Amino acid sequence: MATVFETQIPSLLGVRARVADALPISRVDFAEFSRDLLRSFRWLHQQHGPIAAIEDGGQRVVFLFSPEYNQQVLSDTERFHARFFTIRGPKRSAQRRVTCGLLSMNGDQHRRNRRIVKEPFGLRAISTYADTVVRLTDEMLDNWRPGDERDIAEEMRHYMLGVTSTLLFGMDDPVAACRLGDMIANWVTLNHEVGVGALVPNDKFLDGYEELLGYAEVLEAEVLAMIRRRRESATHGNDVLSILVRSNDADGGLTDEELVGQAAVLFSAAHLTTAHSLTWTLFLLAQHPEIMEQLWVELNSEDSAGGRPKSLGSMPKGEELTLLDRVIKESMRVLPASAYSQRMATESVRLGPLELSRGTGIVFSPLIVHHLASLYPEPERFLPDRWINLRPSPYAYHPFGAGPRLCIGAPLAMSIIRVALQRILTRYRLSVVPGSDIGAHVESTMLFPTNGMPMRIHSADGRYARSPVVGNIHELVDLGKKPEVSSYESAKVDDAVPVQRKPR
Ligand code: HEM
Q: What separation in angstroms does the CA of 33 have from each of 25, 42, 157, 341, 371?
């Protein structure tokens, strides 16, 4: 029987024809294909399996949907270069300089910059950020009141704006740090809007393009002013930018131009990825009361008292994982904040049945690979305990990428997520507003919550209960029976039967 995807998507995507039955290639309209990338990726995988390509007007993009192909491409940084920003701007423009951070670098320049930029993300440095993360988390929670209804996606976005700005750009002047963070966040949005328009350039695209180039100039001036203040300051700041400004290697440290690019890319890479990971995890926990109940016990145990996670940095393995760690790992499997990344072939190369010419774009997607039933039985179910025995290859589980370009901020992101979840979940109970339309879509390489995440805040009374919700989230996560519209439209959160009342 044909699935919804098989029957509806070809017309939605503007698919014209299969190029040749023997090859896993579909001719599509790129603009149509990009309109709903989540659906398009899933459709393409269903059509062709582990490797697929789309073609439009002589241009080809290849998609990898298996650990084996991932490994072939991600481990080979010579033949496959990274590319991140769609709009690089003219050669000597501010846009070109602001987009020249790690994610756009390759070869020796990438290796050298990565070695230097990694330094402020080591375990020792991360432990010095812990107090700041705790303080900023508590400031957010002090504003929440039982009975509030809040868009948790927006709360997490705002919270991470504060955390990222402060850790990257300064604990001593949070106002200047947040202003710069805000500017980079706006610039990232503008890049996305203009980047999408680039598929079908028109007057609107040209206006947006000019605006982007102008904004990049203002942003660059702001970062340079901050770098200058760091260089002139007698005190030794602990923020990432200060550490990078002081950095020195055999070649004399990072130039101001390199620092501008790294500051912009670090903020862009850290802000929304971590915010979305938090949002998705809070959603999954609220919708799995049995797991939330066990987690509550762990978070309130003596080991966890004090509201600090036991371990900082990356994940330990297997049985050493706490339930909190298993929850985060499983959440990043089911709903990975980074939905896809890209590479570009630097020479002609054969990948499986496909011959790639120089310059061909290649996409790899944890969103698809993390849902392969051959790797993860019952892939749509949120089962944190699967991680007690599961040891997938780094190319089969890659929420932070894999190989020589593995995310340098992963240990920091994990520490922030652990601290935030621990403090949120011991202080409040969160439930999804019943009847909410919970959607996910892919935008700027990330998996965004489409309509925010409407949640109610309760005191930590242990009355965990799943809420009926609608939306395309049901295509990604098995949340039990999908409710009929009429039965939940008028439901109230406290009408739901709580799993158990837990005494504090
Ligand atoms: C949950 C949060 C995060 C997720 C899901 C995430 C995901 C990723 C992924 C998938 C990549 C690989 C991209 C590729 O191969 O093309 C990556 C790279 C990177 N990430 Fe993260 N990231 C997160 C947090 C952070 C944080 C907190 C920082 C720094 C403050 C950061 C900085 C970077 C940088 C600089 C790279 C580029 C590394 C390179 O090219 O050598 N990320 N991240």
A: 14, 11, 28, 16, 21
3-class secondary structure, 491: coil
**Residue 274 contacts residue 417 (beta carbons within 8 Å):** yes
Nearest to 384 by CA among 468, 294, 309, 483: 294
Residues 25-74: tens digit of each pLDDT: 999 999 899 999 999 999 999 999 999 999 998 899 999 999 999 999 99
**Sheet hosting strand 149-151, strand order edge to edge:** 149-151, 454-459, 428-432
* Residue from 414, 262, 443 nearest 340 by CA: 443
Q: For the packed helices 256-286 and 203-232, what is the interaxial angle rounded to 10 degrees?
A: 110
Kindly list the protein residues whose Cβ atom lies closer than 6 A to any atom of ligand 1.
82, 102-103, 114, 265-266, 269-270, 273-274, 277, 337-338, 341, 399-401, 405, 407-409, 412-413
Residue 409 alpha carbon to ligand 1 centre in Å: 6
Gap between the Cα atoms of 55 and 182, Å rounded: 37
Residues 238-288 have pLDDT tens digits of: 899 999 998 876 677 899 999 999 999 999 999 999 999 999 999 999 999
